Amino acid sequence: MKPPVFKYRRAGTVEEALSALAEYGGEAKILAGGQSLVPMMNFRLVRPAVLVDINPVQELDYIRVEDGWLRVGARTRQRSLEKSAEVRQSCPLLAEAVKWIGHPQIRNRGTVGGSLVHGDPSAELILVAMLLDAQFIIQGKGKSRTAGPGDFFKDFLTTAVNEDEILAEVSYPMAPPRSGYGFRELCIRHGDFAIVAAAVQLTVDERGRCSEAWVAVAGAGPKPLRIRGAEEALVGSDGSSRVLDAAAARVPEEVDPISDLKGSEAYRREMARVFVRRALEDAWSMVKER
Amino acid sequence: MERWVGKSVRRVEDKRLLTGKGQFVDDIKLSGMHHAAVLRSPYPHAIIKSVDTSEALKMPGVRAVLTGEDVARMSSPFLQAVEGPLEYYCIAVDRVRYVGEGVAVVVAEDRYLAEDALPAIRVDYEALPAVVDVEEAMQEGAPILHPKVGTNIINHRDLRYGDPDAAFAQADVIVGAKFFFPKYSSTPMENFAVIAEYEPIEDIITIRSNFQGPFTMHPVSVAALRIAENRLRFIVPPDIGGAFGIKSSMFPQMVMTALAAKKTGVPVKYLEDRAEHLMSSSSGTDRVTYIEVAAKKDGTILGIRKKVMDNVGAYLRSPEPACMYRSTGNQLGAYTTKNLAWDAYVVMTNKCPTGPNRGYGCQQLYFEMERVVDLLADRLKMDPAEIRRKNLIPKDQIPYTTPTGGIYDAGDYLACLDMALEKADYQKLRQEQEKARKEGRLFGIGLATVVDPSVTNIAYITVAYTPEMRASEAFNPKSGSGETAVVKMDPLGQVSVIINTVPEGQGHETVVKQIVADELSISPDDVRVVSGMDTFTRFWSVTTGTYSSRFASVGASAVAMATRTMKEKLFKIAAHRLEARVDDLELVNGAVQVKGAPERKLSIRRIAGLAHWNQGALPPGMEPGIHASYTYNFPCSTSPDADDRVDSSATYSFIADLACVEIDPETGQVEIKKYVTVHDCGKVINPKIVEGQIYGSFVHGLGGAFYEEMAYDESGQYLTGSFVNYMCPTAVESPELDIGHVETPSPLTVLGSKGCGESCTMSVPACLANAVADALKPLEVTVDRLPLRPGDIWQLIQSARQNQASKGESRK
Asked: What is A7-53's CATH topology?
């Protein structure tokens, strides 16, 4: 379980990282926290010829609130998100979701951008990005572009970041007023990859009716899914338990899970419904309190 | 005078272990040392048509490649516990029989370069059909793993004790089921680690490894390596990062590394990695059992009848088929029934070979036994506690000889059960359950009462042979469980104890200090313990090592007896110097003094110093120096009799467990609300260490109950090659335990102590399965296999609901 030979390049700035990527073409990979990449190299499942280490890149390590958006630099550690008062205030769902990533040791090293670019369909950060329509800034040499989650997450372990680009920032819309959220995850052991995870956010209008709803599920397809049918069932409703049941009932038909040792396809499909239902309950009781 | 045995003396090992100063195999670096990596079979079953190493040999840093051809030329197949035409070498010779079996070994300057060269080895395989299911492997027409053997059933005994037919004929009720116990393992923090070197002038092979014993594997390795016994040196460093039985099965890797060293002429280090450990080291057996229990209406168990099929994987590797026979003496557990029909099959399939794994044989035994006892209670509408109380061996019958030949040395089983029920407030729990069930909640209470054997008597393995075979002239009987300790005092009078128990984290050094300090009335700090092992310089035997929860029984007894032997010499010298009779002397605060005249005394340091410095002043005829060795053994550890009865372990502890669980009916997740475990392991030498053992064994048992399985698909592909899929429970999944002790001293050990290392691994899978079954009782489903992951429990709930729905339909 040792990696094959690779070259190591240390980048102090985004510019240096991009130059290194340009120099080595498709042979280089960005090393951030290394929590997925390094084990995959040890198993020889990936064999980058060059690692471009962006751990020294300070300019991508930030959390700030601007113009109604929570902006997070791609090299920010997951642990920083978890501990940030700004995150808790402006996007509490994200703060809750981060706690479910692996273990503290993993979050100490793991970065926000690393998890997003890795593209694992059970990843909590990707689920939240899908749910909230996070915006991504992808930096290339001399140019940058933005993408929403629909374009960013292409498929299983595949994102829109090209070989000569790096993810620079992800930004999340701040939680609207009169909103509540729920985040629920099913895993066999604490810290495991989710069998399924459900994230929801709801807002209510002044009359207490649901004005906006976001519902998404991870672990039940090649990438996290927005459950549009559930969202439609919620908007305009009074959030009664009958409504929440009906919304959750839309989940099984929209997901596309696989079978493995941790759960059959049927189990995952049903758990997606159960965990959405529970997350809706959490979210609605939170809104009612406000 | 302070006494140390019975106190929670702080572990002396922890400081070095927690500060990274332990001495493990990987800390050893020899001059010129190279590193091995193993090419492993991707096929579950295939003929090796050719192996071409020419490209690999050109790779940077590669010194040599060891192939099956080398192995067949340089070594012999391993001796087995059941003799026969089965050929098992350290790597595959002409056929692979499981995914992960070694095919070639690259020796290179470092492990990276060695792994780089693996894909350059060209192996031409011809795939064969594979079989992984134990019952399928027994069928006519199944793929045969070893054509020379001609069948996959490598051992079969139809064993009968008492009169099971009469018992079943008289029964008011017969209850039975089929049970499946999973293949699972120990996952010690340190994987297998071996360094081998070859010295050609004297033809000496030295193998440093984290091998835990039993040292029966030394003669086995001698035969495989075709070397003289006194030229094969096994060295074990002071620290091993956990073993749990799995490291009894590492001798093939030791022989493989030795052959690599012999072929290359340089020392070779082989550090198994985690993927290799999970795929190709060892595990417990998976087992299918058809079991029936015959009973009277009042719950009295009359007899047990069962067909047991152990899946030992691709080869019968020594000490298998011990999973089947290790528990011969305690095969009927803690119950008074006299009658047993035991149809035992040991079967080979295309899975990784098996071996000892904490709770060896008893995990499987008590899962089938305790489940069927609960099924019986169900049928008779009896409380599971009541049926156990009815059948547990009462205190006044102990020492108790079991129908299968075990001699239960001591214990108060009912007191343990009562303490467990009391701690759990059992009646109140049942009331809570009633309330919960009315609310539609799935709330369950499980019990398990099991006899926990410690100190294997190696004789049990010969139960695999028929009495006729055992009676033949050519048969070499085996028996015993001996362990040796050496105690010495050097010229300045300080005490050292040399133990061969190759501690794997249990805290033997601490416990030895406690024992010797008490025996010599000195401080534990004044006792130095030398652990590790070296077959060239130590006094050892085939039974040496730590396995089968031996230490507190036999290791501790050997240390105490060696110290007492040495003390006799100290007394003789003191008597001579003080001009007193030995009988008039006593040991007080590290000095030998005349009873009633404490001013007439000599410190033991001074006596020992005298034995070195003033040898002429010793009593006439006495040898200079102060040292003693003692090999402790149990007289009861003899060979099986003509009726296949054997006292398979020297001492027997007892465990009464109670679990209370609640299942989320929507998700199948189980919450352990309460877990009580009461032990009678005799005198507790160090309560803190015993508590650690109970927690460790609980979590290990929890793994088998709810989490761990080495899984294969139907074609024989291996599915759980990393900790992502092979899921061991962690601290987060472990509830707090409510632990109790009933201390009934063993009459067979010096201190009255006995084993507690495996303990809860035997009771927990059964107890948790019973609790889950009890929780699901309103749904009328059968819990008959482990592990019970949330998805598995959900599936049970679903099928019950479908059944109930279809029943409802049919009523309409």
From this structure: 3.30.43
